[in-house]
Design a protein that fits this description.
The chain has 2 domains: 210 residues, no CATH class; 146 residues. It has 11 helices and 25 strands. Helix content is 25%, strand content 49%. The strands form 5 sheets. Strands 1, 17, 18, 19, 20, 21 and 22 form a 7-stranded mixed β-sheet that branches. Strands 2, 11, 12, 13, 14 and 15 form a 6-stranded mixed β-sheet that branches. Strands 3, 4, 5, 6, 7 and 8 form a 6-stranded antiparallel β-sheet that branches. About 3% of the residues have low confidence. The chain is of the alpha+beta class. It starts with a helix and ends with a strand.
């Protein structure tokens, strides 16, 4: 059947075209690739993982009252100022958030011993009396975290209210000494506030929580079991916004700036860290988590799809004077351009080469070619032998045939990533949660095996750390 068909074809050309057959065998463009599959899959994107810090005044109140019980302070030395005291917490401490500070209302019971008299020539002739009384002391504290991850407070004495006033007895008579004790307490305010700030610096541990969050961020997250793909994060730096008070909450955001990378194959190995970089204080943490989504079209599949559309079709030129049938198509890469080789017969026998740059059309979600034209060697040869072939619509129709939908591949990849980061418990007390809002083109790459379209999905990724 085939030989008969070929004979009829040649006879038809001879009768209808009445033109001599011309041949074309231009030099083939060199096959070369700038990327391999691993290069494309290892594309990195700068992203920021948000770690929200949300402290309620109720939690601050609970923790302070749990830590501070019974005797809070004791000074039993009378040598320097003829004053000794013991301080107990009388009732639960209250905490309120006011602007950028926390106000503490501390109910205290105080026992005090003080001396009165004089010390001639170094001799202590003072007389001592003791008393007990109750006060509500007020402090205001601004909390911050230093670049070395130590907690810092700036505590300010806001005064106190008498609940029961101090008195001393001489025989059966009691004398109020509120002025004397009040003056002593006010003189002690700097010592008290300094002691509070020093205690916070020594006892509030933040770095260990951050190291734990950092190591959690290092863990690879499986995106697809079928494709053996993993989301890998490579942290670069840490940042944090100032703490701000909103109603009954104190809020800030810690940001881990990192590379995001999609890795294929076995689960990537990571080595946990024992320390983290210094904290960078910023007015706001960017909200720009990004990850690359990849769609593959093998050369063999692209050739098959193109052949299904174009092979076997006949094209006419100059109102039917010339006819050309497409016998076969092939394609390969030449650096960043795709070469299409078309084998034709009829008024023109031989091969013609085209080149174009693959790109991803985000609106149509298709893989297409732009700047599509004859290869220079082919064009030069045709100008001399078959200029009519250049005037037809063959190149345009071949370019139109190279339009392949890959939206479903990318949608599936996006769904996989979304599922992988949607309320995912990484460790006990740590939950990863992300939302991908939009997808934008990144590039199309030619490898020896595939035409690879890469887009990046942009959204928000948070790592919630319980108790932070």
């Amino acid at each position: 059947m085939r030989p008969l068909r070929d004979c009829l074809w040649l006879l038809f050309l001879g009768l209808c075209a009445c033109q001599p057959t011309q041949t074309t065998q231009p030099q083939a463009p060199k096959e070369s690739y700038r990327f391999n599959t691993r290069d494309v899959q290892s594309e990195r994107y700068i992203s920021t993982i948000n770690i929200p810090v949300d402290i309620t005044t109720a939690e601050v109140t609970r923790q302070i009252n749990a830590r501070l019980q019974g005797l809070l302070y004791e000074d039993d030395s009378l040598e320097t100022d003829d004053f000794a005291c013991k301080v107990w917490k009388r009732a639960p401490i209250r905490v309120e958030a006011v602007t950028d500070s926390l106000h503490f209302y501390v109910p205290l019971k105080i026992w005090a011993k003080f001396g009165y008299g004089f010390r001639p020539l170094g001799m202590n002739l003072s007389q001592y009396k003791d008393t007990d009384f109750e006060v509500d002391v007020h402090f205001s504290t601004r909390f911050s975290i230093a670049p070395d991850w130590t907690a810092r407070t700036e505590t300010e004495w806001k005064g106190f209210d008498w609940v029961s006033k101090p008195t001393i007895k001489f025989g059966p008579v009691s004398f109020p000494i509120t002025a004397i004790v009040g003056k002593i307490l006010n003189n002690k305010q700097q010592t008290i506030t300094k002691g509070i700030d020093e205690s916070v610096r020594k006892n509030v541990e933040i770095r260990s929580h951050v190291i734990q969050a950092w190591n959690s961020a290092l863990q690879p997250y499986q995106l697809s079991e079928k494709y053996r793909s993993w989301l890998k994060l490579i942290p670069l730096e840490l940042m944090m916004t100032p703490l701000v008070t909103t109603g009954t909450h104190i809020r800030a955001t810690i940001g881990i700036k990192a590379y995001t990378e999609t890795v294929f194959g076995e689960r990537p190995s990571v080595r946990p860290v024992n320390d983290v970089p210094d904290l960078k204080l910023v007015p706001r943490v960017p909200d720009d988590f990004r990850i690359g989504l990849i769609a593959h079209l093998t050369h063999a599949e692209a050739r098959r799809l193109l052949a299904d559309t174009i092979v076997g079709k006949t094209f006419t030129f100059q109102e039917g004077r010339y006819r050309v049938e497409v016998l076969d198509v092939d394609l390969y890469g030449s650096n960043e351009q795709l070469i299409i080789k078309a084998t034709v017969r009829g008024s023109l026998d031989g091969v013609v080469y085209f080149r174009g740059t693959p790109y991803y059309d985000a609106q149509q979600k298709t893989l297409e070619l732009r700047n599509f034209d004859y290869d220079l060697q082919t064009r030069s040869l045709l100008l001399r032998t078959a200029n009519w072939f250049l005037q037809g619509r063959f190149a345009r129709q071949l370019q139109d045939a190279f339009r392949f939908p890959i939206g479903e591949q990318l949608n599936a990849a996006q769904r996989q990533v979304q599922a992988a980061v949607n309320k995912r418990v990484v460790y006990k007390g740590m939950t990863l949660n992300g939302t991908l809002r939009e997808v934008r083109p990144e590039g199309v790459y030619l490898t020896p095996e595939d035409i690879v379209a890469v887009v990046f999905a942009q959204g928000r990724l948070t790592l919630s750390v319980e108790g932070l």
